[in-house]
């Protein structure tokens, strides 16, 4: 019938029970105690645990309940305890047969067989329940993944499911696994994009402040400034929901603290005297946002997430070039060399990234068209930068930098929702 461990009341011999078990074909692995029951079952892996106790203790119920979680096994208890509460507790703690008033040698084999049948049935039921729960969970994942594809790619529901199914077949995975990967990738891509926007907005806000100071379309600059503040705070709120506080909370809190300092500096209104303080606060926000974005990219489960960060960073660099050019146009002659150096560094970084995006296999034909339009706007921005001391040059800087922002917002979003990024 199989192998068994025996557990009896302390001080009570188990020789009679052992002999009767051997007569019905049970191999005895040895005797155990309540304290060692779990350890011995895991170590010896018996088919049965046969317990003979007049009044099973709470410690026994705790041990059998732990066994049910760690290492389920068929358990028979012979006892004198007739309380209904004990019977209920026995059944809920993983005991399969509760035999009152001892046992009869003649019925021992049938009792053990009953225990074994109940154990197998419970095991099957647990397996069926786990399978059902798994399939329901997988269905929810697939529905969520389909929703992402339908909203970001404009797919019909059946097309979204075919996309998931085809990716699963190619990767020799379950559809649910592909769905989970897509959900994780979409969440990661959104976090990288939104963290990257914090970098851009740090530079844009300084640019818009300068435009207000020098009187270049002041009403438009003020409206864009308010929209930028709202966008920045919305991104921080969304990142707080998206990101694990224990993993990324310190980085996000640093970015939030930097933003509070910049917001405080901006509150003084459009004044030339406050430009240095505002720019220094913006540089701190840029630094903390850059660190957050880099960590999010590195932590992403998708190797292709780099392209989302690269395209998003172009938004910041376009705003940075505009900001530095405008600051240089206002700076005294003695300070212009430092602004020129900052400007050339930002221009070089932007152009390097443009070349990388053109080479990227993730750049579609639509993406290349966006890059061509961005190249045209970029040339205008670069031609206007040396003329930032003139009203006409400032206006062209403002217009070209906003056009670049719009184009790279579009391109970053297309990478964020790319099937190659989301599905692989």
Structure, explained:
The protein is α/β, with parallel strands linked by helices and 424 residues long. The chain has two domains: 2-125, Response regulator (Rossmann fold); 175-422. The chain contains 15 helices and five strands. It has helices at residues 15-23, 37-44, 58-70, 84-92, 108-153, 157-171, 175-214, 218-242, 245-266, 275-299, 306-330, 336-359, 365-384, 391-416, 419-422; strands spanning 2-8, 26-31, 48-52, 74-79, 97-100. The protein has a five-stranded parallel beta sheet, sandwiched between helices. Helix 6 crosses helix 7 (175-214) and helix 8 (218-242) runs antiparallel to helix 9. The longest helix has 46 residues, at 108-153. The two termini are 52 Å apart. 39% of the residues are buried.
Topology:
Blueprint: E1 2-8, H1 15-23, E2 26-31, H2 37-44, E3 48-52, H3 58-70, E4 74-79, H4 84-92, E5 97-100, H5 108-153, H6 157-171, H7 175-214, H8 218-242, H9 245-266, H10 275-299, H11 306-330, H12 336-359, H13 365-384, H14 391-416, H15 419-422
Parallel strand pairs: 1-2, 1-3, 3-4, 4-5
Helix pairs in contact: 2-3, 5-6, 5-7, 6-7, 7-8, 7-10, 7-11, 7-14, 8-9, 9-10, 11-12, 11-14, 12-13, 13-14
């Amino acid at each position: 019938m199989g192998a068994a461990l025996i557990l009896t009341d302390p001080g009570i011999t188990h020789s009679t029970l052992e002999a009767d078990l051997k007569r019905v074909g049970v191999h005895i692995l040895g005797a155990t105690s309540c304290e060692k029951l779990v350890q011995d079952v895991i170590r010896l892996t018996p088919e049965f645990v046969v317990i003979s106790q007049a009044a099973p203790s709470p410690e026994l119920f705790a041990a059998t309940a732990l066994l049910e979680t760690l290492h389920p096994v068929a358990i028979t208890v012979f006892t004198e305890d007739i309380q209904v509460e004990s019977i209920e507790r026995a059944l809920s703690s993983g005991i399969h047969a509760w035999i009152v008033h001892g046992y009869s040698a003649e019925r021992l084999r049938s009792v053990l067989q009953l225990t074994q049948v109940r154990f197998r049935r419970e095991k099957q039921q647990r397996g069926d329940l786990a399978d059902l729960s798994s399939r329901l969970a997988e269905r929810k994942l697939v529905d969520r993944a389909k929703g992402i594809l339908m909203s970001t790619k404009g797919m019909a529901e059946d097309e979204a499911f075919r996309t998931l199914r085809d990716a699963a077949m190619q990767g020799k995975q379950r559809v649910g696994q592909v769905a989970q990967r897509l959900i994780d990738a979409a969440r990661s891509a959104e976090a990288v994009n939104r963290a990257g926007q914090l970098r851009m907005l740090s530079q844009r806000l300084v640019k818009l402040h300068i435009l207000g100071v020098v009187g270049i379309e002041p009403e438009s600059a003020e409206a864009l400034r308010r929209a930028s503040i709202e966008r920045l705070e919305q991104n921080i709120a969304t990142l707080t929901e998206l990101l694990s506080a224990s993993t990324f909370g310190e980085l996000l809190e640093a970015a939030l603290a930097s933003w509070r300092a910049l917001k405080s500096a901006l509150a003084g209104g459009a004044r030339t005297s406050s430009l240095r303080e505002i720019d220094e606060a913006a540089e701190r926000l840029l630094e903390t946002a850059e660190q957050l974005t880099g960590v999010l990219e590195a932590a992403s489960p998708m190797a292709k997430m780099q392209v989302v960060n690269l395209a998003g960073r172009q938004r910041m660099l376009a705003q940075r070039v505009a900001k530095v050019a405008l600051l240089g146009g206002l700076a005294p002659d003695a300070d212009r060399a430092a602004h020129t150096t900052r400007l050339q560094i930002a221009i070089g970084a932007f152009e390097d990234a443009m070349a990388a995006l053109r080479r990227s296999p993730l750049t579609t034909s639509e993406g290349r068209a966006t890059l061509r339009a961005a190249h045209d706007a970029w040339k205008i921005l670069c031609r206007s930068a040396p003329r930032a001391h003139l009203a006409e040059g400032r206006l062209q800087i403002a217009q070209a930098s906003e056009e670049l922002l719009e184009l790279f917002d579009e391109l970053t979003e297309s990478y964020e929702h790319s099937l190659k990024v989301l599905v692989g």
